[in-house]
């Protein structure tokens, strides 16, 4: 076991509790055997108000390896999201999540969540990951925004997740 | 004249006596371990325990000289013991064929040794032994080699840096975007072939069951479509076993996927565009070269050193894919959950990975590699050299003498370098503990309880938050109790408080990681659990509660490495610092390691 990684994640968790981000939820996931796994988190990211993402709440899984915080967590939307920088598998392509680009061990989970929220509304066309979303964005912005609004409507209503209310 | 007379003259009677009476634990009996055990029995040590969970493999024999051909498949530690006793029958060696992390190797057991010597090949076990030695307060000699490079150092609690005071280089991983969309080096293609393509086709169908049903009910077509697309490769499985299968797989990954990438023009503004291979070209390649049965005319060695043409690789792809699919279909008949994982010594798997990596490299105009090289990279094989292991083992013995002679200050961190322009050895003073280290700056306690009776609530109220002057630890703040990566209790998760330790599976030998966040000050405590079913009181707590202090938060930014002032350089080369850095980046490996991620220097 790596003591460093676990101490840091506990610290992050305490920090998130103190320095709560309105509209977001994040915490370790309960595994099938009823334990909470500090390496496996679930977060809910709200779309930014006033954008086509408004109203949607997007579920993200954060998988930490024992080399965290030397290495970034793997962030995956589950279910996947229609977005130029998100792989069909839901994996997020973002420079702060890339060990060789902008990841630094000092980046907090809070920073990651806010960074991803921003990415939703401000795709980076230099590193597309999902062709359909990328193409529509390029070819027909209006249609693209429309799709987003439908998507936001169809993604989670946070009040319908009973587990969340109990444990976050 | 007895066999120790020379040694007595060199060490002196007093030190030799200490050496003879000392008890040594050697963890790992592989590359370094074989050399080290021979040294131990030849240099006065009489009480040695060794532990290794591995068995002997053919590939060990070139350097792990305590093993011979007839020992293949047998326990490394047991055979090492037997062979070492032939050098010197007058020593006691206890051999454990077991995992050092097993609960019977608890803190009491660690405390019974005077020195622990690591001869390990993986980070996880090293971290564990480091923690156990800190908790038991036993000096640890840590070592590692990689090719011509090696190092040895001494770790003593509160005196020196521990194994985790400085972050260790970790196996290299690549960002998902590089692997899936924009490979630029052969390794990117190898990682893709091994960790993506092979895993998707033959690996466990992981994670997908995690997708929540509740959401998809809401006629959400978008999500449905995305999921479907991401599953496209897996869905081809319905054709497995039919003649079209390999063609369909090929078309999906080497044609359709590449075309989709091409449509994202921004990716190719500054990069060379990939060139897909369509079905027609694929079929043509198969016609040109219907037979690549390489073992027929060439020797194997020559073949795996050869760079194949694209046509040959396509043939190889088809041939291996069909063989692997047959294996998969057969396996699934017996067990529907059947899956395969990458195995570098499996010829077919290796050929499949090499061929697909090279086809992808061809498509992206990246240099192709021969199978020998690909195996080295994909299998994470790092050269291990007997001479390096022997030199490092010699240094370990010298360190052990110094420790037993109470001359810890004479010990150094020694790097064995491989650069003819300067000293082969670079010596450094042992560094002081890092005040921010979350491992050695912790306080360690031993808690004896009856796990069938003691509950988490008891731990919290009778031990953790109880005042120090009342036999407690006096913690005050948000408390988190973890065991490895499991959270047993924190401010939100309190549903297990009334469970006994046995119910939450905290048994003898387990350790709990307790964090207390008191207004931004983080207190960190490790508690080792000893189970005593005949205990006549609630608990016995051993440890010094006055030693609990908070750990400094991590430094703001690890910007350009600050010059360390507490170190004296023995090497006169100006570039000693650079060299040291170079050595550190490889110090984690001893033998061929089975780490999943790809590691390169
Ligand atoms: Zn330390």
Number of E-type strands of chain A: 4
- Can you identify the CATH superfamily of chain A? Ubiquitin Conjugating Enzyme
CATH fold annotation of the largest domain in chain B? Rossmann fold
State the separation between the terminal residues of chain A, measured CA to CA.
26 Å
Q: How many helical stretches of chain B?
A: 20
The main pleated sheet of chain A reads as: 4 strands, antiparallel
| Low-confidence regions of chain B | 207-219, 296-301, 558-601
CATH topology of chain A: Ubiquitin Conjugating Enzyme
Q: Name the CATH homologous superfamily of the largest domain in chain B.
A: NAD(P)-binding Rossmann-like Domain
Q: Spans of chain A with pLDDT under 50 lasting ≥5 residues?
A: 159-168
What is the count of structural domains of chain B?
3
Shape of chain A: globular
Order of helices and strands of chain A: HEEEEHHHH
Active site (chain A): 93
Keywords (chain A): ATP-binding, Nucleotide-binding, Transferase, Ubl conjugation pathway
Organism (chain A): Anaeromyces robustus
InterPro entries (chain A): Ub_conjugating_enzyme, UBC, UBQ-conjugating_AS, UBQ-conjugating_enzyme/RWD
Structure commentary:
The complex is a heterodimer of chains A (168) and B (601). Chain A is an alpha+beta fold. Chain A has a single domain (4-154), classed as Ubiquitin Conjugating Enzyme. Chain A has helices spanning 3-18, 109-121, 131-139, 141-154, 162-167; strands at residues 25-30, 36-46, 57-63, 74-77. Chain A has a 4-stranded antiparallel β-sheet. Chain B is α/β, with parallel strands linked by helices. In chain B, β4 (115-118), α6 (123-136) and β5 (140-146) form a beta-alpha-beta unit. Chain B folds into 3 domains: 5-169 and 384-429, Rossmann fold, CATH 3.40.50.720; 184-365, Orthogonal Bundle (Arc Repressor Mutant, subunit A), CATH 1.10.10; 443-551, Ubiquitin-like 2 activating enzyme e1b. Chain:  B, domain 3 (Structural Genomics Hypothetical 15.5 Kd Protein In mrcA-pckA Intergenic Region, Chain A, Roll), CATH 3.10.290.20. Chain B has 20 helices and 15 strands. Chain B is 36% helix and 14% strand. At the A-B interface, α1, β2, α3 and α4 of A face α6, α7, α10, α12 and β10 of B. β2 of chain A pairs antiparallel with β11 of chain B, so a sheet runs across the interface. Zinc ion (ZN) is lined by residues 161-162, 164-165, 433-434, 437, 439-440 of chain B. Chain A: Keywords: ATP-binding, Nucleotide-binding, Transferase, Ubl conjugation pathway. Chain A: The active site is at residue 93. Chain A: GO terms for molecular function: ATP binding; transferase activity. Chain A: It holds the Pfam family UQ_con. Chain A: This is Ubiquitin-conjugating enzyme.
